[in-house]
Amino acid sequence: MLLRFTLPRGTSPAVVFSLALSSTLWSGCSTTDQKTSPVDQVIGSMSDSLPVVQLPDEADPEDENWKGIDLTPKAPVLPLYPAEEAQKFLLPAGYHIEPILTEPQIQQPGAIAFDGNGRMYVLELRTYMLTADSDGELEPDSRISRWEDRDHDGVYETGTAFVDSLIFPRFVLPYGKDCILTMESDADNVYKYTDTDGDGKADKKELFTNKYGRSGNVEHQQAFMYWGMDNWLYSTVNAFRVRETPGGVIREKTGYNRAQWGVAHDDDGKLWFQGGASGLPSYFQFPIHYGNFEVENEFAEGFDVPWGAAVKTADMQGGMDEIRQPDGSLKRVTGSAGNDVYRGDRLPRDLQGQYFYGEPVARIVRQINPVVTEGLTTLHNVYQDEQSEFLRSTDPLFRPVDMATAPDGTLYIVDMYHGIIQEGQWAQKGSYLRTKIEQYQLDKVVGLGRIWRITHEGLERDKTQPRMFEERTAELVNHLTHPNGWWRDKAQQLIVLRQDRSVVPQLETLARQDKNMLARFHALWSLEGLNALDVTLVRDLLQDPNPRLRIQALRASETLYKTGKKELASDYQRMLQDPVTEVVIQAMLTAKVLQLPALDRHIQAAMTANQARGVQVVGKQILNPPVVRGFGVSGGPDLTETQLALVEHGAEIFNELCSQCHGTDGTGTPVGEGQVLAPPLTGSLRVQAHPDYVIKTLLHGLTGPIEGKTYAGGIMVGMPEQSDEWVASVLSFIRVNLTNEASPITPADVARVRKASAAQQGPYQYAALRASVPQALPLQDNWNVTASHTASARIGGTASPRSAFNFEGWTTGETQQKGMWFQIELPRPTTLTEVHFNSPPIRSGWGPEAPPPIQTYPRTYEVQVSMDGKTWSEPVATRQGSEADQTVVFAPVDAKFVRITQTTTVEAEDTAPWSMRQLQLFGLVTSSVALN
């Protein structure tokens, strides 16, 4: 094949070679027109005539956001080949940048992550801002691809679509061999996808955890599920953390991280969260699970001033008031995305421990130096005095959205290479940004994307190919001493996932004796993840000469204290008087999160003994917690006074009785060898499921294995002698608390189940109990969902009836009329028992002066079923809507079709459409419903 380029006169041979390499990459891909590169396709979509733009009618030319705006016709911003873009980067002396994966193999990358064999997973947000109005943003066209460098030349040339047809996926977390965790936008569940046949494509989908998501603008939803050094999984936005245990996925509340796109950790395991609209790091002072602490002057003077290169376009959402003249660059940070604490070994040593993040509006990657003084951290832009940044570009299409320390010891940069980086809600018609988009035809630059490697002269990348999936666990332990933090992190993760306790002696020796301090950290946390942490080892490490190790021992000891090792309280009291300020602060945080007895007195004593600013700031806020407001806070249901009384009574019952077997925190009372006395109740999908499950269990008991796992207690004894109110109280406490956040149970619910299950003799076996309880039927690809009327429930959303099953929602788009219908066709007849859905109100404002919301629940409706979609039954239920949450229960009925029909036309003055989201069907099933 002949490759032809038109190059500027005097182009260097290196650029010519790099262009040929880039073209070889795209020409070998079968998913694109091989006659035209993606860059050429984008250029071909642009208008030859220069657009005429003018000040929108509603714009005030005297307003600072518009004053001085240049509206003269401009040539479009043309995309460059990767090798051409590489020439536009500005880096400090000695640094080099090279493309390692580009379009058309990938499109619009948003994040990357590596598995134990060094294969790179790419989160491809293929629907992001394809038009200025964000049309089709929630179409199922995004993917997670997996790439590897099989010929070891540094370019990732071999890849597959590991999971395809996703709706704007939020993250990708490699989770063992050929397995990842991810979730979609406007969804609530995290799923585990596994490739079981080795073809590079996931063919198995399993629920990992629920109650993880939210709806809203795609910039405001949770992202970046991240494995911390403490073996918990964190994400942006969500004020909780989760982890998988032998008893299921459990959850704990944390502080509010106020982050949007980016989570990383340093060598000591402290998490760093990256903000979004703020353009700044969000929370980084202390580990987030200790709650929030407000610290003044976290950023050095001038930190919010970016020093991007001259890009001329001045296409910043804030308007001309935010533009540095005359170069058109950004003069105050306004957006940020992606972060990494560099922990590799193939860039200069002065980069280790430095914090990097992208500011895609300013087209920069910042290098931040964290300076700790008296236990508190202040962030400094390394290149501020030079009025520069670590990485800048004069190409307006450079959009750095993620970065990562790579297995080869270098730093990778994810470049979405996109015309518009702000979501459509910030680029609406009549806005300053929309005017600039149209002036430069930025909306035409879509479907591209590059991943770059940053190297340094004299430091060759590490060409060792990771092969952790083929290694024995004992070999993984050896990687805990590796100088590259990526190898240490991944080895620890796989050790914990394997749950191979044969390496416990090896890990204990490493934790006690190794000369590599960082290896000792990872050995300690590997033991914690294996549930093999010994209290004697921890107490010894609490007296180690190195204060950093004492801090790690304090953090790890919290797991033991929670499981009953209360003797550690004396160690905490002693360490509150440690001579090192950072150790004292950690002891205070540990005492706070564990609610150490006489906490206030001990904190006050520590503050008296140590006057360091950090000790005083933390101590004061423990003693007098500030009011903290979170972004996207996830909480339990709002309780009425009656429900609250039930829950409070249930707490007493649980602590007096149930905690003996189920543990004080609901995770199960340990009995040794990783076993617990009774099934964990914390974060339990069984507890959160249909209320009948826990009611029947408490009334009649449960024995035998549960989902293949046995428990030391052997049997849950039924308590039919207890009153309906007693049963409702304790079950409401368990469902509302212990991170379950499910609805409470009423005494009437208990009475109904007691009557219906009166024939049950003795305790249930799990299979029989589950078969007797209605199960939520997860939406399947082969369900045919239709409606008489369909419109998108939100700007940029998908006009599809299937959206009724997620957070995005479905709506008629028109005023409710008699005869409107919504129908589901199942692939086979199923015994149905209930329909649940939520119809959120439409608000046009907030506060006492705002007009009342428009209610979108169906005013009156009926539910019918059918076997063939032609002959319909008499209504199995009729309802008159009165609130957003609708629960329709009916006698079990076999059906292949189910239809909800409006039976009233709403009066003309009430323009409420009918809407539904989080729709669920419930039915009786004899085994787990397949997810595929």
TrEMBL record:
Q: Which Pfam families match?
A: Cytochrome_CBB3, DUF7133, F5_F8_type_C
Heme as a keyword of this entry, yes or no, is: yes
Q: What does the UniProt keyword field contain?
A: Heme, Iron, Metal-binding
Q: Where are the transmembrane segments?
A: none
Kindly give the InterPro entries that the UniProt entry links to this protein: 6-blade_b-propeller_TolB-like, ARM-like, ARM-type_fold, Cyt_c-like_dom, Cyt_c-like_dom_sf, DUF7133, FA58C, Galactose-bd-like_sf
What range(s) does the Cytochrome c domain occupy? 645-738
Query: One GO MF term, please?
Result: metal ion binding
Entries under Gene3D superfamilies matching the protein: Cytochrome c-like domain, Galactose-binding domain-like, Leucine-rich Repeat Variant, TolB, C-terminal domain
Give all residue intervals belonging to the F5/8 type C domain. Answer: 771-924
Task: Provide the protein name.
Answer: Cytochrome C oxidase, cbb3-type, subunit III
The organism encoding this protein is Catalinimonas alkaloidigena
